[in-house]
């Protein structure tokens, strides 16, 4: 009789067939990293919330090109979820995640419990200004403070030399770059390209929330953004009206079947400030909703 895939995955954790190393305490993590550093090895970190997909695995592979050892952290960070958000429902599948990582250059999984990260009496929060005020920050108050705080803790806990973040969460990547510069952290930050499914939908742990009809609509987000980018570039010489294009994009998303559009916005690629003309590297960012599920996407211009 064949075993349930999840049970089979669980039974293989820490078995000889699954050499994926998992540590759960800061002391064990530091021991491991200390041994590597004593040998002069460069250590990289891939922060994740688990439910790993090809997007996460691509970050592991990309980072391994620049460092000698790769740590993947798996921690569903309560501090970055709002009270009405999906913290409880967020997919948790550590055993399967470890199996997925076996085919990658990952050397170690760091999966702390919530009270390791936030022991009783925890009071500190890290806040990066301005960049976190709008876009995701406007819709999810406190979200970026939760991300900045946990990422800074992951850096200091691991002592990593480098870390990689996906361009999928572009505002987050820009925020982390600012935090590292502003706090003089000795961590090199890399950005990883967005990995997409066959129809162009950005891979996301939250895509499992979509019903079959919603999944069809979801594939139109990147198509509509690519069309807006083409229109912006075509009109660039004559001074494209980016505000009108943002409105056109919002309408196109609603017409395509999305229930709500949180934003469609052309921004400066580095500062994330709003722009009215395309005369420097820019980014088109959007979030559209299907039911309660928010789908993020963005494109370089
Ligand atoms: P998460 O587990 O959703 O917190 O994501 C962990 C990291 O993976 C973040 O740096 C994300 O930006 C990145 N990531 C998530 N989805 C993708 C994707 N489709 N392509 C590239 N990176 C991604």
Structure description:
By secondary structure, the chain is α/β, with parallel strands linked by helices. It is built from eleven helices and nine strands. The chain has a six-stranded parallel sheet, sandwiched between helices. Strands 7-8-9 form a three-stranded antiparallel sheet. Helix 8 links the parallel strand 5 and strand 6 (188-192). The N and C termini lie far apart (53 Å). The model is unreliable at 5-16 (pLDDT under 50). Bound molecules: adenosine monophosphate (AMP). Residues 48-49, 55-56, 58-59, 165-166, 168-169, 192, 194-195, 202-205 line the site of adenosine monophosphate.
| Widest β-sheet, arrangement of strands | 1-4-3-2-5-6
Rounded radius of gyration (Å): 20 Å
Ions, cofactors and other ligands present here are: adenosine monophosphate
End-to-end separation = 53 Å
Q: How much helical structure, as a percent, in the residues?
A: 25-40%
- Which regions are unreliable across 5 or more consecutive residues at pLDDT < 50? 5-16
Overall 3D geometry?
globular
Provide the succession of SSEs.
Answer: HEHEHEHEHHHEHEHHHEEE
- The number of helical elements comes to 11
**Secondary-structure content class:** alpha/beta
Binding site for beta-alanine: 80
Pathway: Cofactor biosynthesis; (R)-pantothenate biosynthesis; (R)-pantothenate from (R)-pantoate and beta-alanine: step 1/1
Function: Catalyzes the condensation of pantoate with beta-alanine in an ATP-dependent reaction via a pantoyl-adenylate intermediate.
EC number: 6.3.2.1
